[in-house]
């Protein structure tokens, strides 16, 4: 107990310098599994070349569905073929054998002859240029493969003497030929049926509902500094350049001309729920000229701060673009180091027979999907829901829509359909108190399920998912798109409580040694209590990597609406347990931190951590769900609420029947037996286990004072340490770790 009080006392002097912050994200875990294509024409052996179809007008995308071309790397698919090119070939087309190489400059045959000059035998040298070859040389670094025909000389130097029987005496090549055989094989993937409905060639941008503020339709694409795999384009601090691209497929325009009045229009937003682009950042549009394969910038705008949506309307007014194979693309300029400098793009429309005044989308569409069908939570454990004495299901849901037409819309019968395992369970109509949707305005669609609405609690399963389908209908024309008239929500019940929608728009953290972060949850009525097995946390990499910064897990009970007594802490004097942020690990980016022992909780409780260092740990922060008053932090003078509106991506996980069937690595059960001796120590400290990969030693100010990856005879020297108590974090080759207390006491 003395150790715990001493540790707390030392921390207190540092806490008042702490602060809480939101930071932009470094990566986006939702993009990690997306197959991508190479934007450049550079190729390497066994690369894929993806062929694409050319599309017709109109082109329209409100990003309510995925219209990005997919890129499979399965060589066994029926649409995949392969071809091989050789670096050097003869004029007839047959490749030069691997044993033959060439030089750019003439090579020679040197003949030594013995002649009689003035009665003396004299050796003379006659050099003859070797016969050159006309060779086809191909550039294998780029596709399409381009070839050229050039004159080359065989890579041989011949030495011969007329007085020997050997003919020639010696032939030797240069060890550094200018041209020697090489080859490249490429796979070609022809378009498949599902590709024909796609519009976009690249998928650098992020298709989502999370970053826009007040969009006009469901779904946008967001430009930032992350590539299509969700990783920074450049990890070097301060790197800026063109980053995300959104490129259309080739378009048939060869039969069109200026008189067809072709316009490109779109909506864009600067920042949204992301980071506002700086004034030096920009969003641009380019048009592609198939004749010279050049891109020309047609429109651009620099970064600015605003939550508004802006509309652009661009006429295709140059004859050079009226060719088959024309393309257009959006691109953003800004930071390459993370999820920064955001632009949201919506409702791209490219078509003929438009006018300068044709600026309306003529569409009635859902604006955003519901986040949850539960009161307060986005998910609760199925066993809690089944046994709850209160009905936490929403009995009505309001889903916003927008009518972008200049005419009102007459509402036709609209329903919410409920499915379980694709089987229809029930249907509920739109509460038709208003049948006319005003023009150019937002309109709330309210679906009333009634106070007696419930889900089937007799389902005998551990995890359960229900699918809600909402749709709107009108007989008023025109309706430019129909796919944004239907929206789905999967309501999942597993073994955890959650507030967040599963997507982080920023990273939240508090700076300071010993800072405590607590997140409030309440068990549903009727359960009273249950047992926690773990805590799921989505740590979001930001511009600062803190994956090596340790922390203690903690759980509190409730005291008058604030975190009260500690129910559990891994900051234990006898068996301390240190944890580290795991970035983008586990299911949907949530890493499950197993508690060293199962921990009962009841009613209202809090989960969180205590920091060992001053670094901000950056838990994922969801800006779309506001649970500000459930987030608390303690700088040393007591807990207080955060100033930021949003929710933390932390989830308490309870025991369930699934625990008996799914074998998950239980850190506390697989402890490796290890000890430090002698302890207390004066100079040399030995480690009893030789399977150690690293040790990190902290003082009671949580400062790292010693770190070693390679130990000499699995011992270390503490002769330069001050007398006192230290924490030794011992890491093993199997990924396990243990923290041991070490007392240093130097004899006088």
Description:
- By secondary structure, the protein is an all-beta fold.
- It folds into 5 domains: 2-25 and 504-660, no CATH class; 56-61 and 196-359, Galactose-binding domain-like (Jelly Rolls, Sandwich), CATH 2.60.120; 88-181, no CATH class; 366-493, Sandwich (Immunoglobulin-like), CATH 2.60.40; 676-744, Immunoglobulin-like (Sandwich).
- Strands 3, 15, 16, 18, 21 and 23 form a 6-stranded antiparallel beta sheet that branches.
- The longest helix is centred in the N-terminal third of the chain and has 14 residues, at 2-15.
- The chain is flat.
- Residues 1-18 and 660-670 have low confidence and may be disordered.
**What is the alpha-carbon Rg in Å?**
34 Å
Classify the helix fraction into a percent range.
under 10%
Distance between the termini: 27 Å
Number of domains: 5
According to DSSP, the number of beta strands is 51
Question: What spatial form do the alpha-carbon principal axes imply?
Answer: flat
Determine the mean pLDDT.
87
Low-confidence stretches: 1-18, 660-670
- Broad structural category: mainly beta
What proportion strand?
35-45%
Helix segment tally: 2
Report on the biggest sheet: 6 strands, antiparallel
Please outline what is shown here.
This protein has 748 residues and is an all-beta fold. The protein is 3% helix and 41% strand.
């Amino acid at each position: 107990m003395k150790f715990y009080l001493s540790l707390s006392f030392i921390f207190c002097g540092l806490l008042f310098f702490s602060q809480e912050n939101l930071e932009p994200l470094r990566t986006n875990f939702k993009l990690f599994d997306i197959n991508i294509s190479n934007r450049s024409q550079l190729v390497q052996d066994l690369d894929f070349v993806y062929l694409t179809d050319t599309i017709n007008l109109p082109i329209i995308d409100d990003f309510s569905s995925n219209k990005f071309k997919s890129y499979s790397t399965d060589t066994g698919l029926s649409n995949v073929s392969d071809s091989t090119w050789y670096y050097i070939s003869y004029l007839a087309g047959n490749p030069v054998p691997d044993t033959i190489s060439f030089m750019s400059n003439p090579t020679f045959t040197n003949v030594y002859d013995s002649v009689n000059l003035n009665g003396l035998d004299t050796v003379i040298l006659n050099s003859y240029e070797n016969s050159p070859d006309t060779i086809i040389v191909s550039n294998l670094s780029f596709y399409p493969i381009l070839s050229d025909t050039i004159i080359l000389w065989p890579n041989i130097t011949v030495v011969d003497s007329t007085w020997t029987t050997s003919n020639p005496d010696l032939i030797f090549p240069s060890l550094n030929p200018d041209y020697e055989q090489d080859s490249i094989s490429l796979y070609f993937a022809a378009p498949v049926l599902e590709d024909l409905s796609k519009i976009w060639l690249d998928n650098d941008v992020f298709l989502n509902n999370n970053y826009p503020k007040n969009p006009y339709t469901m779904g946008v694409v967001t430009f930032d500094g992350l590539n299509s795999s969700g990783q920074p384009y450049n990890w070097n601090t301060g790197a800026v350049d063109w980053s995300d691209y959104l490129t259309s497929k080739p378009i048939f325009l060869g039969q069109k001309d200026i008189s067809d009045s072709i316009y490109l229009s779109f909506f864009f937003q600067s920042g949204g729920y992301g980071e506002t682009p700086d004034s030096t950042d920009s969003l641009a549009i380019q048009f592609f000229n198939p004749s010279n394969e050049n891109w020309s910038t047609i429109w651009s705008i620099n970064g600015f701060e605003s939550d508004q949506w802006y509309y652009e309307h661009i006429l295709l007014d140059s004859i050079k673009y009226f060719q088959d194979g024309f393309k257009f693309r959006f691109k953003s300029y800004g930071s390459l180091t993370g999820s920064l400098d955001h632009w949201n793009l919506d409702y791209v429309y490219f078509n003929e027979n438009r006018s300068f005044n044709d600026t309306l989308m003529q569409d009635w569409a859902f604006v955003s999907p519901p986040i949850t069908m539960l009161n307060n939570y986005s998910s609760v454990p199925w066993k809690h829901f089944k046994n709850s004495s209160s009905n936490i299901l929403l009995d009505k849901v309001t889903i916003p829509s927008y009518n972008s037409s200049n005419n009102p819309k007459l509402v036709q019968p609209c329903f919410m359909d409920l499915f379980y395992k694709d089987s229809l369970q029930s249907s509920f109509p739109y509460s038709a108190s208003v049948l006319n949707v005003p023009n150019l305005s937002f309109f709330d669609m309210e679906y009333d399920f009634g106070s007696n609405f419930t889900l089937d609690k007799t389902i005998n399963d551990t995890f359960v998912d229900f699918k809600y389908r909402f749709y709107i209908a009108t007989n008023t024309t025109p309706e430019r798109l129909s796919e944004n008239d239907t929206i789905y929500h999967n309501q999942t019940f597993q073994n955890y409580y959650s507030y967040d929608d599963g997507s982080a728009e920023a990273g939240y953290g508090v700076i300071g040694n010993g800072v405590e972060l607590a997140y409030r949850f309440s068990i549903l009525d009727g359960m009273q209590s249950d047992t926690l097995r773990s805590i799921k946390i989505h740590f979001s990499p930001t511009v600062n990597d803190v994956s090596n910064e340790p922390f203690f897990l903690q759980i509190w009970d409730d005291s008058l609406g604030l975190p009260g007594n500690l129910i559990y802490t891994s900051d234990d004097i006898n068996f301390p347990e240190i944890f580290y942020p795991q970035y983008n690990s586990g299911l949907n980016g949530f890493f499950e931190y197993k508690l060293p022992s199962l921990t009962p909780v009841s009613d209202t409780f809090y989960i969180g951590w205590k920091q060992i260092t001053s670094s901000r740990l950056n838990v994922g922060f969801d800006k779309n769900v506001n649970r500000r008053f459930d987030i608390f932090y303690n700088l040393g003078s007591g807990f207080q609420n955060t100033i930021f509106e949003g929710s933390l991506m932390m989830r308490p996980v309870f025991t369930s029947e699934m625990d008996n069937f799914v074998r998950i690595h239980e850190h506390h059960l697989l402890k490796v037996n290890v000890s430090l001796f002698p302890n207390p120590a004066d100079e040399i400290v030995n480690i009893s286990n030789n399977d150690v990969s690293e040790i990190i030693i902290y003082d009671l100010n949580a400062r790292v004072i010693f770190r070693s990856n390679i130990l000499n005879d699995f011992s270390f020297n503490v002769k330069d340490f001050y007398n006192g108590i230290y924490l030794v974090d011992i890491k093993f080759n199997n990924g396990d770790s243990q923290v041991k207390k070490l007392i240093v006491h130097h004899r006088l």
